[in-house]
Design goal:
Blueprint (H helix, E strand, L loop, with lengths): L39 H25 L6 H14 L6 H11 L1 H10 L3 H10 L8 H19 L3 H7 L7 H15 L1 H24 L5 E3 L4 H9 L5 E3 L2 H10 L1 H26 L19 H27 L1 H15 L19 H22 L4 H29 L4 H18 L4 H35 L3 H29 L11 H14 L6 H16 L4 H9 L2 H19 L4 H34 L4 H4 L1 H7 L2 H23 L6
Antiparallel strand pairs: 1-2
Helix pairs in contact: 1-3, 1-4, 1-19, 2-3, 2-8, 3-18, 3-19, 4-6, 4-18, 4-19, 5-18, 5-20, 6-15, 6-16, 6-18, 6-19, 7-18, 8-9, 8-11, 8-18, 8-24, 9-24, 11-23, 11-24, 12-13, 12-22, 12-23, 13-16, 13-17, 13-21, 13-22, 14-15, 15-16, 16-17, 16-18, 17-18, 17-20, 18-20, 21-22, 23-24, ...
Length: 672
């Protein structure tokens, strides 16, 4: 391995932009050399990370509804371990540790959004009507995770190579910068470390001590309070370092489109609804109990705007599937040729950085999973052949079709709208199941298990495209990432299943002092009336679908716009601010090389903010798990955190943070 003891260089300048005609992207690790990737070290540490972060993420997600992104903290830990034990050429191993360990976050997101709803409904209908066991939870997560991997692999080349530079891949960019800077050291590592410390401490102080507000709204002034109350108009923004850093990497183009969707929802649709419906004396819409006048802007958003966003995401996904039909057919054609023994020129050597698991294995894997899902549904869930076949069809069709939607969302904004797609899946599944005669408690169980499998598949697919993009930039072997991802899913699914059962016995998900499990409670609230004769907001879904068609016809990326309508306003605004900072940094000079150097330094700073925020998010979770509550120790601080003064200080601190990012980015110089 001595030939590989070369100095690690920085990420090539053309990694994050579209390639010019005839230009070729060369990853950091040469495709013609062999590097350590799959070793006992990388596999064992990857599995340790999967167990630890699955348990931590499941607890935190069920307690406060937030699943932290595990990829960056795991990458940082991997670097620390390789440095501590003085491992040489550890970049490839660190990618594998991160890829296996990152299964934790995606499996947790897929499981806790749906499966705890089984316990919630069991508490209402009794254990005889709704039975829940480890097998249901484990196999829902396991089979969904496996499906997500297999369905995504045929699209790897399209997303990571064919669309090179067209998508920002914010989380993959941040994780890649962390891995490279940790391996390379020098000035890049210094910039990343300083930014990580600043961003991490900034977000940690907000989350743990409430020194200033994480969210600022126009309600801090009298006019803003009046506008929110009487006209349902409110502006709000998150002041966190990590979210703003994410916006810098996303860039102004996509940030503006995302925020356009958000602004249309909050400053057009909500005020119009409030203006025309204010005189109504009865609730309007499916499963809504409040009149419009009784609702806050946030409640109108959740009841009316977000379903429009869900419909838009669904239609944008269908449009994307239609546009990708050539790639889908090509994948099917390759599978058919391989199965027929006509896989192409056997003598042509495929570089290890371009090699995937063969389509023959994928085809047999999908067939085997189809059989396993059938057996699981028939003998573990519905015990009826017709209902099993219908449930199987729902899972396979929706999981396959929405795989590209999940990957697209991650590639654009770094956030997977899996809860929205799962909600749509539950509604569709409930509608179909009722039509074939399965309703009541048994129907609720079936729909939730179906939703759990689909949710985990989409969550896994979205997270896995990040891992594969990291590998593409760094030059690892995709077939190795793909192969060992299955083991990470297996371990994470077992861990999550056990943790959910333990937490249910310890705390429960209903009643006093229970874990809030907000997404699961929302899923249970939606599915129950559908299985007992209720209805869904089909008109709003249809409006979102029509909007997506209109946007597509005029050349506006419908998925990014619909994501803006689905994601809360306060998370979209800092993304736009980060995009504006990116534009300022790259347009201040007429020297293209200087602008590129400044943008690269800005990307390092943004990655540091994201990495620091993610790592401190884990630290804050551990502190909360340990029972430390600063507000209980210092009650006056709780009063301060809820005051307008904390919001004004939040604005000041956020402006200082933005100013620092611009100043430090503009300090960059062109390397000789």
């Amino acid at each position: 391995m001595s030939e590989n003891q070369e100095q690690i260089k920085g990420i090539p300048e053309n990694a994050f932009r579209e390639l010019k005609e005839g230009e070729v992207f060369e990853p950091l690790m040469s495709p013609k050399k062999i590097y350590p990737e799959i070793t006992a070290w990388s596999v064992v540490w990857g599995l340790v990370m999967a167990v630890v972060f699955s348990a931590a993420a499941a607890y935190l997600g069920l307690k406060i509804g937030q699943v932290f992104e595990a990829a960056i903290p795991i990458a940082i830990i991997a670097i620390a371990l390789s440095t501590l034990f003085k491992r040489k050429n550890a970049l490839g191993e660190n990618v594998i540790i991160q890829s296996i360990g990152a299964c934790s976050g995606v499996i947790v997101a897929g499981a806790i959004f749906t499966l705890p709803a089984l316990y919630i409904l069991q508490a209402k209908y009794g254990e005889e009507a709704i039975q829940v066991d480890f097998i249901q939870i484990f196999f829902s997560s396991l089979l969904g995770g496996f499906l997500g991997i297999l369905f995504l692999i045929p699209f790897r080349k399209y997303f990571v190579a064919d669309m090179h530079g067209k998508y920002p891949f914010p989380e993959a960019t941040a994780t890649t910068q962390v891995l490279v800077s940790g391996e390379k050291g020098g000035n890049q590592a210094k910039v990343l470390l300083i930014a990580g410390l600043i961003g991490g401490l900034y977000d940690f102080i907000i989350a743990t001590f409430g020194a200033w507000s994480e969210t600022v709204t126009t309600r801090i002034i009298g006019l803003g309070e009046t506008l929110a109350k009487d006209y349902k108009l409110v502006f709000k923004t998150n002041t966190g370092a990590a979210v703003m850093g994410l916006g810098y990497i996303v860039g102004l183009k996509y940030a503006a489109i995302i925020c356009a969707g958000s602004f249309i929802g909050w400053f057009v649709i909500i005020p119009i609804i409030a203006y025309f419906a204010n005189g109504m004396t009865q609730p309007v819409g499916a499963n809504i109990t409040l009149t419009i006048s009784q609702m806050s802007p946030e409640q109108i958003f959740a009841s009316y705007v977000r379903p429009i966003g869900i419909g838009g995401i669904a239609m944008a996904g269908m449009i994307g599937i239609w546009r990708s039909k050539g790639i889908i057919l090509q994948a099917f054609g390759l599978a058919v040729r391989e199965l027929g023994g006509k896989g192409g020129d056997k003598k042509a050597e495929v570089l290890r950085t371009q090699k995937d698991i063969s389509m023959k294995i994928i085809a047999f894997g999908v067939l085997a999973l189809t059989i396993l899902v059938f057996v699981f549904f028939q003998f573990g869930v519905v015990h009826n052949l017709t209902h099993t076949i219908v449930g199987l069809a729902i899972v396979m069709v929706i999981a396959f079709l929405f795989t590209t939607v999940a990957a697209n969302a991650i590639a654009i904004v770094g956030s997977n709208p899996v809860s929205g797609m799962t909600l749509m899946t539950l509604i569709i599944a409930s509608f179909i199941m009722v039509a074939v005669g399965l309703k009541g408690p048994a129907g609720m169980v079936a729909a939730l298990v179906i939703g759990g499998v689909v949710c985990t598949a989409l969550s896994t697919a979205g997270g896995f495209i990040t891992d594969l993009k990291i590998g593409y930039w760094l030059g690892t072997s995709p077939y190795k990432q793909e192969t060992w991802k299955f083991l990470g899913v297996l371990v994470s699914a077992a861990t999550v299943g056990g943790v959910i059962m333990v937490l249910n016995k310890t705390y429960g998900f209903t009643g006093d002092n229970a874990l809030v499990a907000p997404q699961a409670n929302a899923m249970a609230a939606v599915i129950e009336p559908l299985m007992t004769g209720g209805e869904a907001p089909w008109m709003l879904y249809g409006a979102g679908a029509a909007l997506a068609l209109i946007l597509t016809s005029i050349g506006v990326p419908a998925l990014a716009f619909a994501l803006g309508m689905f994601i809360p306003l306060d998370l979209n605004v800092p993304i736009l601010i980060g995009g504006f900072i990116n534009e300022i940094v790259i347009t201040r000079s007429k020297d293209e090389k200087l602008n590129n150097a400044r943008q690269e330094q800005g990307t390092l700073i943004a990655s540091g903010f994201i990495a620091g925020g993610a790592l401190m998010g884990v630290a804050a979770a551990i502190i909360k798990f340990a029972g430390f509550d600063f507000f209980e120790m210092v009650p006056a601080m709780k009063d301060w955190a809820d005051s307008n003064g904390a919001q004004w200080l939040g604005i000041a601190m956020f402006l200082i943070l933005c100013g620092y990012m611009i100043w430090h980015s503009l300090k960059a110089k062109v390397e000789e």
